[in-house]
Design a protein that fits this description.
This protein is mostly helical. The protein is built from 18 helices and no strands.
Length: 387
């Protein structure tokens, strides 16, 4: 059981190396391709739009087909999309298409990987295994910032995407060797494959789903623009001490991973719903002022982004675990599908909204990040109303 959990967590990290390569190298792409902030927002966000479209089908299928097979196909597609970006990307439209393919690949790995884990674990430790897996998303994010930032700076962005393709292929080999086939558990009452009405009628599950949508809107709106934000702050303070923007984003993702695991542990000890409400409220309130703090010394701004990264992620694993725990037996795949479809729909809009607001306001990071806080504060409302 532990071997399967470790393999799935490691595979998740490997397939995610290329996910945040574009926002990590955004200053280079903006200069080379003359992108506007809105265009950059589209390229960043289309990954999560494609994810939201594909995940409903791919994850729902795991109620009828072993999730291991879906994960293998998703990891292979991730390798293809990264290799294609390295060889073929030449501007806005080609980057948009290849990032979209990468989003479909993520839909075939992230939540199907969670379903594969749930199908292979049981007992009182299962929520902790789930939290480890969902927290590995942040570890993958941190390595994406770190590896692609370092390789891109040293050898160019095409080399960074080439390495990402190799990492995804390694994930294919790992899952193929480490996971044994497991037959899925059929629903107690047969329904058409994409009939999500039973999930939509599950009020406790939908409370977590809508709160997760607000969470991902805020999370990806911030993560896809944090490197650019810190680069602007650093450019206004030549010679300022502190880590590079990419290194700060890497640290932030690592802090977020620890916060996610810690939040999941707290959710097991205390009321899960109340913890999520408190965490989301705190992150939303901080978002209202973070962008306006850009005039502070660079080091202090970096510290603020690290604190904010922890607050955003504090409820991430707890929200996903909550949706899984209240799902009907035999409909966990469908519940995870709705959770991801609606949740990552917010993940698409968040980066796009930040880019559009930057263009509309002449580069006001205060207004752009405050919009994330407004959305985040809707999460506690959903949890309260849909008990």
């Amino acid at each position: 059981m532990r071997g399967a959990v470790f393999a799935l967590c490691a595979a998740e990290v490997l397939t995610m190396i290329g996910v945040f390569a574009f926002p990590t190298l955004l200053p280079a792409f903006t200069a080379q391709w003359s992108l506007s902030a809105t265009e950059a927002g589209w390229i960043s966000g289309v990954t999560f739009a494609a994810y939201a479209v594909a995940v409903a089908v791919l994850t729902a299928v795991t109620d009828r087909v072993d999730a291991r097979l879906i994960h293998l196909g998703g990891a292979a597609t991730a390798a293809l999309s990264c290799a294609g970006f390295a060889l073929l990307a030449e501007g806005f439209w080609s980057a948009l298409a290849l990032r979209g393919l990468g989003g479909a690949a993520l839909a075939g790995t992230y939540m199907p990987g969670l379903k594969a884990l749930v199908d292979r674990t049981q007992g009182p430790r299962q929520p902790r295994w789930i939290s480890f897996y969902t927290a590995s998303f942040s570890l993958g994010t941190s390595l994406s910032f770190l590896v692609t930032g370092w390789v891109g700076e040293a050898f160019g962005w095409r080399a960074a995407y080439g390495l990402s393709a190799i990492a995804a292929l390694a994930a294919v080999a790992l899952v193929a060797m480490a996971l044994k086939p497991v037959p899925p558990q059929p629903p107690q009452v047969a329904t058409p494959l994409l009939d999500f009405r039973p999930v939509l009628r599950n009020r406790p599950a939908m409370g977590y789903v809508l709160a997760y949508c607000a969470h991902t809107w805020e999370l990806f709106g911030f993560r896809n623009w944090v490197v650019a934000f810190l680069a602007v702050v650093l450019a206004q303070q030549p010679g300022a001490a502190g880590p590079t923007p990419a290194a700060a984003a890497t640290l932030g993702a690592l802090v977020a991973m620890a916060a996610s695991i810690g939040g999941a542990d707290l959710a097991q000890r205390f009321d899960r719903r109340r913890l999520c409400m408190v965490a989301t409220t705190l992150s939303g309130l901080m978002a209202l002022g973070l962008g306006f703090a850009g005039g502070l010394p660079y080091g202090w701004v970096v510290v603020a982004t690290l604190v904010y990264s922890a607050l955003i992620q504090l409820d991430s694993a707890a929200l996903t675990t909550g949706a899984v725990l209240v799902a009907e037996p035999g409909r966990r795949g469908a519940t995870i599908a709705v959770h991801s479809l609606i949740g990552f729909g917010g993940g698409f809009i968040g980066p796009l909204a930040v880019g559009a607001l930057l263009d509309a306001t002449g580069g006001s990071w205060g207004i752009a990040f405050a919009s994330l806080g407004v959305v985040a504060l809707l999460g506690p409302l959903a949890l309260r109303l849909l008990r």
